[in-house]
Structure formats: structure tokens, C-alpha cells
Design a protein that fits this description.
about 400 residues; alpha/beta; Aminopeptidase; OB fold (Dihydrolipoamide Acetyltransferase, E2P); eleven-stranded mixed β-sheet; four-stranded antiparallel β-sheet; globular; binds zinc ion
Length: about 400
């Protein structure tokens, strides 16, 4: 992927915090001067080379990603060996980070729908509540980085989970995102983005970035910082910001994440999301960890209606062990590599030219990139076929489903 190697001094923002030791959780809320700078730093290679944009603390109670970025930026500052492109680190939700909370008013990682972003841009930043102000500022920063990015923009959004277990990758399943994400040896979860609307990774994908999310482990586990760091080093090399084989950290990172994944499958797909609202009084049973096998009838949680039991066999993902959150848990199942290969071939062959011939499937009357599916006629198999072809559900679940082509293909 790399044609030229440029050795040179790395340039850093001087505004970055001096050390990683503190992202205090109990700072008083108040004026903006108490907020951490949005930019964690920037390591700069040669002009026209790829850029990797990394976001930490999109959720304010998840400091691991930002801490890992500080470590890497510090390391590259003292030793820029192999640095070809650029790395930029940003804090996602500064106001929530200051409060040590996932968010203040609403989840910053669910509100990047195009119409909403346009509406917030139109305010020019005036009169916005916490997360809308964050979105406004972050959007401007991302735009600037995307404009400056030379050859190609790559991006990672770094998170942690309230439950324990091995780390994993989440992606908007386009071919280029998948190709990059599969370089990270952790379990890749596909189909989650269909359940979650308005994520920042989806926004970045719409801007043309090759992007994925990384969940580095439990929020307060110090080893989550090591895993986030490993994933960033691997990605820096995979997207050509670092010269391949030019320094030891990416290989060290691969070994760490392989060990962390253990015998878990490399790719899984989401089968079910258990949505929760605050009034549900959802309470997860203790002790569940990511990728723990479950079977039908198993007691998973309780809510105000009583027991929540598993209705299917699978692996549990992201059991909710914190107060704030709209997802109780997910159930995933392993996806065979053969299926991934087949879907890549089918997408390249543009087989969607024929899909409207299926019963219950029509071209969308207004959108070239979409089909309307009548679920009375086209049930499960048709949806599987759409997934295989690189389409995702873009409207609500009802009798008619709108399936839209993923942006980047
Ligand atoms: Zn998060």
C-alpha cells in the first residue's frame, strides 16, 4: 500500500493535555474553560498521504480510547520511525467526559442523522444544549480534518462496554470497511449498525471515510487502554499511515488481540437487539460477559413486566450494566468466512439488477439506491439476500421495509 517512506519530525498540537494520568471524573461543571481541548494531538507525515482520524470518549464515561491515543501520540512524537501519513486524535463528548457520564442530555452516538446534522449546522452553534453543542463542534473539526486529509481518510471510533469480556470491532458493513476491520484480529460484529441509527461512524462513512468502531473491553479496566492502543497501531499500519513492518508495535498489538479473542469466532452477526427505555426498569442478571453462549429459556434480566428470558441460542453481546443506555443486550451468532467471501463476490457482480424480479420486491419510487420490500411476500430469505448484496434497512419495521444501498459501494 505504501509507495514512499518519508522520515521526518512529527508535528504535534501544543494544546494537548500534558499527560494521560487524568481524565478526572468529578470536575465541576461550568464554563467551557474547564473542558479538555477537543484535539488530543496530531502526528503528521508527508503531504498527500493517508490520514487516520481516531475518536475517543464519544461516550464520556469511556476514557480508554483517549488515553490510548495520548500514549501513541507521545510515542510517535519521540520516535516517528515509519510514519508516512497522519494520525489525529479527538475527544468526542467533552462535556460528558468532564462529568464522567455516558452523556448529559442524549447519546451523542445516536444523533448523526443527516437532517439533524444540517439543522444543528444551521444554528451556527447558538443556543444548543450539551450534546447538540458537542455535535456542532465535533462536526466542524471532522470536516476540517476531512478537507485536509490528503490521499484518503480512515477513521476509528473507540469505545468500551459496561460488561466484561474480549474486545470487538463494530462496522457499517461495506466492502472497504470490512477489508480494513478484518485486519484487526478481534471478533468483528456485523449488522449492529442496522440496529443503531445516527452513529458517528455512519456519519464518517457518509463523508467517504473508511471507518469502524472498536470496543476495547470494560470501561474501568486499565487493560482496555492496552487493547485500544493495540487496535490503533494495527490500523495505522493497515491503512498505510505507518510503513508496513517499519516498527514493532502493530505486530505486538496483533499478538495481544489474538490472545484476547482466544477461541471466539472472527466474525459474528447480530440476530437480536433487546431495546430498553428508562421506564422499563431493566436489570441485567449479574455475571454475563461479551460472547458468552446462551440458550433458549435462560434467565437474562428482569424488568417491570417480570423475567426476560432468552428466546434463541447464540452469544450475548453488550449486556447493560450501567444506568444510561438504550440497548439491554444483543444476541449474535458466528458468521462463516465462506458467507463473507460469497457476499463480496455477489456485490462486485452487481446482482441487485435482478432483485426487483423477486415477488414482493419493488424499486423505490423516488430513490435510485433503494428497494421497497413487502414483508407479506418476501420474508426472511429476501432480507438475507439484501444483506448479501450490501443493502441495509433504512426505515422503520412495518409491513413494508425500505432497503438502501450502503453508501460507499
Ligand atoms: Zn461507547
Amino acid at each position: 500500500m505504501i509507495e514512499t517512506v518519508v522520515d521526518g519530525p512529527a508535528n504535534f498540537d501544543t494544546t494537548a493535555p500534558p499527560s494521560e494520568d487524568a481524565y478526572p471524573r468529578d470536575e465541576p461543571t461550568g464554563e467551557d474553560s474547564t473542558l479538555r481541548p477537543r484535539r488530543l494531538g496530531r502526528a503528521e507525515g508527508s503531504v498527500g498521504s493517508p490520514t487516520l482520524l481516531c475518536l475517543g470518549c464519544t461516550h464520556g464515561n469511556e476514557p480508554s480510547g483517549a488515553l490510548a491515543l495520548r500514549r501513541i501520540l507521545d510515542t510517535l512524537k519521540s520516535d516517528p520511525t515509519g510514519l508516512v501519513g497522519s494520525l489525529v486524535g479527538l475527544i468526542g463528548n467533552r462535556r460528558a467526559l468532564r462529568a464522567g457520564q455516558r452523556f448529559l442530555r442524549h447519546d451523542l452516538n445516536r444523533h448523526w442523522q443527516a437532517e439533524r446534522v444540517d439543522r444543528i449546522r444551521a444554528t451556527e452553534g447558538r443556543g444548543l444544549e450539551a450534546e447538540d453543542a458537542e455535535l456542532f463542534e465535533l462536526d466542524r473539526e471532522i470536516d476540517q480534518i476531512a478537507d485536509q486529509a490528503g490521499k484518503e481518510l480512515f477513521a476509528m471510533d473507540l469505545h468500551t462496554t459496561s460488561g466484561e469480556g474480549p474486545c470487538f470491532v463494530v462496522l457499517d458493513d461495506s466492502l472497504k470497511n470490512r477489508e480494513l476491520a478484518l485486519e484487526v484480529p478481534s471478533t468483528v460484529v456485523v449488522g449492529l449498525e442496522e440496529e443503531l441509527s445516527g452513529t458517528v461512524t455512519h456519519h464518517l462513512a457518509n463523508l467517504g471515510a473508511t471507518v469502524f468502531g472498536f470496543e476495547a473491553g470494560q470501561h474501568d479496566d486499565p487493560t482496555s487502554v492496552d487493547r485500544a492502543e493495540a487496535a490503533i497501531w494495527i490500523t495505522l499500519e493497515a491503512c498505510g499511515v505507518l510503513e508496513a513492518g517499519g516498527r514493532p508495535e502493530p505486530e505486538r498489538g496483533r499478538r495481544l488481540l489474538e490472545q484476547d479473542r482466544g477461541a471466539h469466532p472472527h466474525v459474528v452477526e447480530v440476530q437480536y437487539r433487546h431495546a430498553v427505555r428508562p421506564e422499563d426498569e431493566f436489570q441485567m442478571e449479574p455475571g454475563f460477559i461479551n460472547f458468552q453462549p446462551i440458550r433458549p429459556g435462560m434467565l437474562l434480566a428482569t424488568d417491570r413486566r417480570g423475567e426476560v428470558r432468552a428466546t434463541r441460542k447464540g452469544l450475548i453481546l453488550m449486556p447493560l450494566y450501567q444506568k444510561l443506555g438504550e440497548d439491554g443486550f444483543f444476541v449474535v451468532r458466528p458468521l462463516r468466512t465462506l458467507w463473507l467471501e460469497l457476499s463480496a463476490r455477489v456485490r462486485r457482480g452487481h446482482w441487485e439488477r435482478f432483485i426487483h424480479l423477486l415477488p414482493g420486491v419493488q424499486r423505490h419510487p423516488e430513490r435510485d439506491d433503494s428497494f421497497v420490500v413487502d414483508r407479506r411476500w418476501a420474508r426472511f430469505l429476501a432480507l438475507e439476500l439484501f444483506h448479501l448484496l450490501g443493502y441495509r434497512r433504512s426505515g422503520p419495521v412495518g409491513r413494508f421495509l425500505v432497503m438502501t444501498r450502503r453508501t460507499e459501494e
